[in-house]
């Protein structure tokens, strides 16, 4: 909005930020502006625009950590100008990464001797970790097939249809075929038997998920291991397993230590985990751990003379910030085993509170299991009048972000709402959410049902001339009026934080 | 170090941090500790260890930004808990990324209309950007060959031997052959003529660098474009160009606007630039821009139903922080064109100052060019008495991190020191560096020359003559004695320690 009068130049410095001409001119959006502006103005402009983003802590869609202690924030800010890849210049930061790798490897029961260094690396997230692990499998398999004199141009990977998109990315970008085990109604993870059936001589690995994105379930890696070992004995193909423990890797060792899913199973050759999920660090850190040196082909590791020193590197990204690695180390020593255990137990309890609250409404089916990632996935018992998507939309008004989505094939007819319980989702927030969901259900009950093809079809079939046939326009008008009345009647709650 | 006395729990919170038992027990390094500890103790322990890291601002090896205004630091901290990939939840952050993409695209003269949106994406750095660009080229080339019914299993990429390691990574991980144009003494970038000669029907693209890591030089993209256009006419292969402008992309448009290296050249189909180099943002952001939709095969773009809404995504990384994207937008609107220009001019002036002072010592030959990334790369005129590696090590004593390295083939006999001039490398720091370099040279001049194989030969010869003169005393120094001499000399020097470390 450009005002016709201009402030004199000499007054610029004494104007309060909101009166200065900088916030009254509109900024170009597609081109870099010609001139500079004072830092206070720039800061204020951006800060104000960002007010319209969602509140990260009310984002119940994401597993990714949204709160850390102020002491850790301070460490992160102090390290924000350290380029992680300069290993020679920042040897301590590099050492901290190595300690994290070793701690996580031991957490996953990697078969290492005392004093033996683990094989692993810090990444930007599980996507990068999975791509590195997949690359290692692909290269190992290619070398094996070349040595046998067999064709090595059609590698494939066996996984469930519930995989997170990064597996599909890996498959598409690195030219590996993705063989997906389809889900079925009521069984939303990869079936180990079907998976092992799909394995052929071109399979570079079978990927199991510990903590499915959709409903938090842990896949039965032990059964998969047992069945695959039998098949390997018969075929001699030596197909390995990778466990995508993006969510579950920092939960299972604390809540279910007897559950065998990690390197205790001999066919598991690599595991990835997201530091920024239940590792309790802000977005931007993941870990890939290999069983031992043989599982990471040496030819993939680069030894470079960057800035004057030899640095072995196996990552896709090069320069990146050091803050998250330092934050991960902080968490590991600050919390220790008991701290993580307490936090996970707390998350489980809050998940139960939410689950019971939802069950009490009598309107929902709980799709998630009690054991697994602390989340609650639920669908409407009766979704003929209103869908889960409408519930999700209405919850936004209160500030909550609760996603709704359909299951992958072959269960696309099932739609769920999913609430992820993170460290900072307290019991009081859980109770408030239940109250708000009840409010939303109440509102939806008073609304007419959505217009559907079914209704239009039934109108057409009525032959009686006196029936008031509603045209599409009339039906829409009716709905609009109902909504307008609805909004006008509702007293706005102050639900948005 | 475990102390045998234990502190009773009830007194714990009274103890000052350094007296508490947490700072006195040694932490396990390979296993998670069993118990928790107070946050103050954890903070102090980590903070203290990190004191031994180098000081980022004295790290003259890196192009990556090491200082931003406090207002921006505040914005960064406020958005540190936003997961960038949640586009639906953080629509404004997503909008800011799109604005940055468009701003950069226009900076590079992308041929889009004023209201048309540019094709590009924010990445974690130029490595990811280059991999995405390379993937796009590979896929396009494969589709073209399939349509022609020709083999498509041996793609290659032509580039100079001066490429940064991420190109080699791309080649190795994505199974593309890397055909490198070798350098030679005095010519440390890719020769366009040789590059175009190397192009064959399996070449997915030719990669030129704007701002070589080694010497800061800009490659002659215009010339490359002309030669390649001619070759394309005769062969019909339609080989495109990618410009790796990791460093130069935020310098050339401000200092050398008439230099044609970007989308003004018709064969340039994609460009990457590092936001965290001269984009003046902390480590963790890069950008890749494509010329048009046709240059980014649709099959590579994922449309996913993540957390309930459709999100088109073409990146290797998924979840990551939003802070650097917001910081990049801050810099664009805070500085504007004139701000970036001022900063780059300042860097060039400081580079010029450093270059002139170094040349004045008379001991060095300047290897970098005046036009290019603001850095000074210099080699010793006489490398027989001591090497640039020794200078580099000695400078560390003063706190400076100045890397020394050898050139890639075929110029491996040349070793250089390189100082990168960033925004926060002021005039006074430049003068101090020169004075420290002069001190180091003086020390090294007084040192006996390194023990080399030549000296060993001399010893052998002396040995033989000894045999002939058994009863004559000889001043033969054993290797041990010579080393002792050097060791003592160095110790004398280090006793004269200055307070150089900041």
Summarize the structure.
The complex is a heterodimer of chains A (497) and B (502). Chain A is an alpha/beta fold and 497 residues long. Chain A is built from 13 helices and 13 strands.
Detailed description of the structure:
Chain B: InterPro entries: Glutamate_decarboxylase, PyrdxlP-dep_de-COase, PyrdxlP-dep_Trfase, PyrdxlP-dep_Trfase_major. Chain B: Keywords: Calmodulin-binding, Decarboxylase, Lyase, Pyridoxal phosphate. Chain B: Belongs to the group II decarboxylase family. Chain B: Catalyzes the production of GABA. The calmodulin-binding is calcium-dependent and it is proposed that this may, directly or indirectly, form a calcium regulated control of GABA biosynthesis. Chain B: One of its GO terms (molecular function) is calmodulin binding. The complex is a heterodimer of chains A (497) and B (502). By secondary structure, chain A is an alpha/beta fold. Chain A contains 13 helices and 13 strands. Chain A has helices spanning 39-50, 70-78, 91-107, 126-148, 165-173, 192-198, 221-235, 252-255, 323-361, 388-397, 427-446, 453-461, 472-489; strands at residues 119-123, 156-160, 177-181, 203-209, 241-244, 268-274, 286-290, 302-306, 309-313, 364-366, 375-380, 404-406, 415-420. In chain A, the strands form three sheets. Chain A has a seven-stranded mixed sheet with strand order 1-7-6-5-4-2-3, with helices on both faces. In chain A, helix 6 runs parallel beside helix 7. The longest helix of chain A has 39 residues, at 323-361. Chain A is globular. Chain B is an alpha/beta fold and 502 residues long. Chain B folds into three domains: 9-53, MYOD Basic-Helix-Loop-Helix Domain, subunit B; 74-333, Type I PLP-dependent aspartate aminotransferase-like (Major domain) (Aspartate Aminotransferase, domain 2, 3-Layer(aba) Sandwich); 347-462 and 476-495, Aspartate Aminotransferase, domain 1, CATH 3.90.1150.160. Chain B is built from 13 helices and 13 strands. In chain B, the strands form three sheets. In chain B, strands 1-7-6-5-4-2-3 form a seven-stranded mixed sheet, sandwiched between helices. A four-stranded antiparallel sheet of chain B has the order 10-11-13-12. In chain B, strand 8 and strand 9 form a beta hairpin. In chain B, helix 2 (70-78) packs antiparallel against helix 9 (323-360), helix 3 (91-107) runs parallel beside helix 9 (323-360) and helix 6 (192-198) runs parallel beside helix 7. The longest helix of chain B is centred in the last third of the chain and has 38 residues, at 323-360. Mean pLDDT of chain B is 84; it is low at 1-13, 452-475 and 493-502. At the A-B interface, helix 1, helix 2, helix 3, helix 4 and helix 5 of A face helix 1, helix 2, helix 3, helix 4 and helix 5 of B.
């Amino acid at each position: 909005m450009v005002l016709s009068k201009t402030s004199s130049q000499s007054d610029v410095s004494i104007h309060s930020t909101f009166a200065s001409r900088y916030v009254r001119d509109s900024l170009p959006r597609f081109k870099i502006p010609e001139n500079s502006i004072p830092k206070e103005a720039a800061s204020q402009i951006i800060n104000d625009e960002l007010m319209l983003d969602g509140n990260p802590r009310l984002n119940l869609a994401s597993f990714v950590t949204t709160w850390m202690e102020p002491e850790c924030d301070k460490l992160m800010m102090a390290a924000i100008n350290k380029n992680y890849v300069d290993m020679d210049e920042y040897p301590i930061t590099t050492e901290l990464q190595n300690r994290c790798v070793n701690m996580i490897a031991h957490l996953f029961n990697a078969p290492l001797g005392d004093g033996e260094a683990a094989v692993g690396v810090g990444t930007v997230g599980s996507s990068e970790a999975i791509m590195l692990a997949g690359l290692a499998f692909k290269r190992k398999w290619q070398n094996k097939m070349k040595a046998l004199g067999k064709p090595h141009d059609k590698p494939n990977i066996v996984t469930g249809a519930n995989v997170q998109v990064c597996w599909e990315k890996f498959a598409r970008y690195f030219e590996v075929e993705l063989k997906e085990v389809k889900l079925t109604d009521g069984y939303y993870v990869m079936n180990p038997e079907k998976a092992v059936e799909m394995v052929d001589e071109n399979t570079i690995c079978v990927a199991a998920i510990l903590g499915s994105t959709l409903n938090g379930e842990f896949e039965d890696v032990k059964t998969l291991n047992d069945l695959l070992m039998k098949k390997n004995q018969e075929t001699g193909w030596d197909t390995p397993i990778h466990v995508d423990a993006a969510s579950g890797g920092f939960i299972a060792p604390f809540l279910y230590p007897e559950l065998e899913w990690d390197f205790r199973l001999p066919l598991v050759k690599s595991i990835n985990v997201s530091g920024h999920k239940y590792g309790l660090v802000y977005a931007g850190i993941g870990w890939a751990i290999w069983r031992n040196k043989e599982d990471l082909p040496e030819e993939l590791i680069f030894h470079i003379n960057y800035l004057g020193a030899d640095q072995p590197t196996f990552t896709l990204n090069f320069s990146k910030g050091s803050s998250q690695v330092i934050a991960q180390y902080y968490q590991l020593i600050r919390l220790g085993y008991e701290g993580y255990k307490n936090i996970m137990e707390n998350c489980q309890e809050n998940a139960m509170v939410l689950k019971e609250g939802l069950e009490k409404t009598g309107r929902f089916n709980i799709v998630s299991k009690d054991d697994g990632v602390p989340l609650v996935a639920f669908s409407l018992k009766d979704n003929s009048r209103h869908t889960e998507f409408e519930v999700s939309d209405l919850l936004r008004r209160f500030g909550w972000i609760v996603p709704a989505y359909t299951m992958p094939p072959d269960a696309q007819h099932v739609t769920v709402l999913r609430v992820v319980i993170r460290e900072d989702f307290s019991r009081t927030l859980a109770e408030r959410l239940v109250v708000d969901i009840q409010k939303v259900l109440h509102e939806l009950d008073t609304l007419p049902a959505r217009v559907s093809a079914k209704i239009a079809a039934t109108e057409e079939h009525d032959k009686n001339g006196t029936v008031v046939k509603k045209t599409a326009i009339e039906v829409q008008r009716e709905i609009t009026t109902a909504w307008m009345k609805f909004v006008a009647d509702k007293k706005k709650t102050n639900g948005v934080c | 170090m475990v102390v045998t006395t234990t502190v009773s729990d009830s007194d714990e919170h009274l103890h000052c941090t350094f007296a508490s038992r947490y700072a006195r027990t040694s932490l396990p390094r390979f296993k998670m500790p069993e118990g928790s500890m107070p946050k103050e103790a954890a903070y102090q322990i980590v903070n203290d260890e990190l004191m031994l890291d180098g000081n980022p601002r004295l790290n003259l090896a890196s192009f990556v930004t090491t200082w931003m205004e406090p207002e921006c630091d505040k914005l960064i901290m406020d958005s540190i808990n936003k997961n960038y990939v949640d586009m639906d939840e953080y629509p404004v952050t997503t909008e800011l990324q799109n604005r940055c993409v468009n701003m950069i695209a226009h900076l590079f003269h992308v041929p889009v209309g004023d209201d048309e949106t540019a094709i590009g994406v924010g990445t974690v750095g130029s490595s990811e950007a280059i991999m995405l660009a390379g993937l796009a080229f590979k896929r396009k080339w494969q589709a073209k060959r399939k349509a022609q019914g020709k083999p498509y299993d041996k793609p290659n990429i032509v580039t100079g031997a001066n490429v940064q390691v991420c190109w080699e990574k791309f080649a190795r991980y994505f199974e593309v052959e890397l055909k490198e144009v070798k350098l030679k003494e005095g010519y440390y970038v890719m020769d366009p003529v040789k590059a175009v000669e190397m192009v064959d029907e399996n070449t997915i693209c030719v990669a030129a660098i704007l701002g070589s890591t080694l010497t800061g030089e800009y490659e002659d993209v215009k010339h490359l474009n002309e030669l390649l256009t001619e070759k394309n006419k005769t062969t019909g292969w339609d080989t495109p160009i990618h410009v790796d402008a990791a460093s130069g992309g935020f310098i050339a448009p401000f200092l050398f606007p008439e230099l044609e290296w970007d989308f003004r050249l018709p064969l340039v189909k994609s460009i990457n630039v590092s936001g965290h180099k001269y984009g003046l943002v902390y480590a963790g952001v890069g950008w890749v821009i494509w010329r048009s939709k046709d240059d980014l095969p649709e099959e590579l773009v994922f449309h996913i139903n993540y957390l309930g809404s459709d999100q088109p995504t073409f990146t290797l990384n998924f979840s990551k922080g939003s802070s650097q994207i917001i910081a990049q937008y801050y810099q664009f609107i805070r500085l504007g064109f004139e701000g970036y220009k001022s900063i780059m001019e300042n860097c060039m002036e400081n580079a010029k100052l450093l270059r002139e002072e170094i040349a004045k010592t008379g001991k060095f030959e300047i290897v970098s060019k005046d036009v290019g990334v603001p850095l000074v790369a210099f080699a010793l005129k006489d490398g027989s008495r001591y090497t640039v590696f020794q200078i580099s090590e000695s400078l560390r004593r003063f706190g400076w991190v100045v890397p020394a390295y050898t050139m890639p083939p075929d110029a491996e006999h040349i070793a250089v020191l390189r100082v990168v001039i960033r925004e926060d490398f002021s005039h006074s720091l430049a003068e101090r560096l020169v004075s420290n370099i002069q001190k180091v040279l003086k020390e090294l001049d007084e040192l006996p020359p390194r023990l080399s194989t030549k000296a060993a030969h001399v010893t052998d010869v002396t040995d033989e003559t000894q045999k002939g003169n058994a009863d004559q005393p000889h001043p033969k120094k054993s290797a041990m004695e010579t080393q002792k001499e050097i060791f003592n000399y160095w110790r004398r020097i280090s006793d004269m320690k200055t307070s150089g470390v900041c």
